[in-house]
């Protein structure tokens, strides 16, 4: 008599398991039934590269990525920010310095495929950057470009022949303006391009307000562009909405040998909470020290000194520019005040939060003997900046 309570060792049970390396495909119907808010949450965890690749996946993803709700929720996502170097020996290949990781990116940024035809690309030159947008000068037009979305707009000159100076790009979440002083006729005028209206505006320009020799571009602060005039140094501003010039800041610190302005809103699309002055202080045309001041609007409207460059670093900076201060320029980048020189491959920057000074090392991809012509820009990729 058989004992049926004992297990049958001749009977084998086969377990079927799927390999973890080949997960089953997710039913497309599940994605299509996900609520919009849940799909937005899933997409928000993806890296920037994956977000960009999703644009071509389907119309739904593309429309969702650029929807007002998604932009509003995720436009403040922390993307890497860079110092971008433009140099004649790096033709349309722009080295990038990652300021967060404090290192040079291994591969430079190549723009050749995104620029117009070969003739235009060969003659294109980078003018400026703002809020993730780059602006190039072409033979007969300007090109505004967003590298993240590969979107661009060609803006024709308002008339021909056309000459300009003191060019500035002001990009905000609502659009952008291009400011310049036209020099194509006997009398100069102020020109302003509005991306929303896609049109040019012309305003009067007073020769007594801004000298022909002014090398500074405009610094955007609280709806105005601010400029430093040559000696005797003073500050003038252009109000973007009204098109009027004025002198809102009556006095500058004494014994300035050169003066530059930066604003915490530059490049980031914001109004800016700080307006800072970087100046060389000395006598007889030679700067002996470099100081940073902040404009304080309340309590008497005055410049308050916040920092001074250490003496050893100051000597290096002054030897770099050979006391030719026209070669020096400054800009704000993600909490850094950058001091650059056209004929030097390094950048001096002041970390505002820690009040410390540092040098950005020379780019390793540059030739050992690099000619002058170093142009540095603040480049903060922005998926939602519209060209």
UniProtKB/TrEMBL annotation:
Bilayer-crossing regions:
none
Task: Tell me which Pfam families the record gives.
Answer: F-box
* InterPro entries in the cross-refs: F-box-like_dom_sf, F-box_dom, Gal_Oxase/kelch_b-propeller, Kelch-typ_b-propeller, SCF_F-box_component
Q: Which domain of life is it from?
A: Eukaryota
Q: Where is the F-box domain?
A: 28-75
PROSITE patterns listed in its UniProt record: FBOX
Tell me the segments the record calls region Disordered.
Answer: 1-24
PANTHER family, per the entry? BNACNNG10540D PROTEIN, F-BOX DOMAIN-CONTAINING PROTEIN
| Protein's name according to its UniProt entry | F-box domain-containing protein
For this protein's source organism, the top of the classification is: Eukaryota, Viridiplantae, Streptophyta, Embryophyta, Tracheophyta
């Amino acid at each position: 008599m058989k004992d049926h309570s004992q297990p049958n060792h001749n009977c084998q049970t086969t377990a079927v398991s799927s390999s973890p390396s080949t997960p089953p495909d997710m039913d497309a119907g599940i994605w299509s039934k996900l609520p919009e808010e849940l799909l937005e949450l899933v997409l928000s965890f993806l890296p920037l590269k994956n977000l960009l690749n999703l644009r071509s996946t389907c119309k739904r993803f593309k429309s969702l990525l650029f929807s007002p709700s998604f932009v509003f929720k995720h436009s403040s996502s922390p993307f890497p920010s860079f110092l971008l170097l433009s140099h004649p020996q790096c033709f349309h290949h722009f080295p990038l310095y990652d300021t967060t990781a404090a290192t040079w990116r291994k591969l430079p940024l190549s723009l050749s495929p995104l620029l117009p035809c070969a003739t235009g690309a060969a003659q294109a030159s980078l003018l400026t950057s703002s809020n993730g947008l780059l602006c190039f000068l072409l033979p007969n037009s300007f090109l505004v470009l967003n590298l993240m979305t590969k979107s661009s707009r060609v803006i024709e000159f308002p008339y021909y022949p056309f000459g300009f100076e003191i060019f500035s790009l002001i990009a905000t979440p609502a659009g952008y303006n291009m400011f310049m002083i036209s020099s194509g006729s006997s009398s100069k005028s102020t020109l302003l391009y509005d991306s929303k209206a896609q049109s040019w505006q012309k305003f009067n320009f007073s020769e007594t307000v801004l000298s022909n020799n002014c090398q500074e571009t405009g610094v955007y602060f609280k709806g105005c562009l601010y400029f430093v005039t040559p000696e005797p140094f003073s500050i003038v501003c252009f109000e973007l909405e009204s098109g009027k010039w004025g002198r809102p800041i009556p006095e500058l610190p004494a014994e300035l040998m050169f003066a530059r302005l930066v604003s915490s809103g530059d490049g980031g699309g914001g109004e800016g909470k700080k307006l800072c002055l970087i100046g060389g202080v000395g006598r007889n045309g030679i700067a002996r020290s470099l100081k940073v001041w902040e404009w304080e609007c309340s309590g008497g409207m005055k410049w308050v000194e916040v920092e001074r460059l250490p003496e050893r670093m100051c000597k290096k900076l002054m030897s770099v520019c050979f006391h030719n201060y026209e070669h020096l320029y400054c800009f704000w980048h993600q909490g850094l005040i950058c001091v650059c020189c056209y004929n030097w491959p390094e950048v001096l920057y002041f970390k505002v939060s820690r009040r410390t000074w540092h040098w950005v090392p020379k780019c390793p991809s540059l030739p050992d003997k690099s000619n002058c012509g170093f142009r540095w820009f603040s480049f903060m990729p922005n998926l939602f900046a519209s060209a």
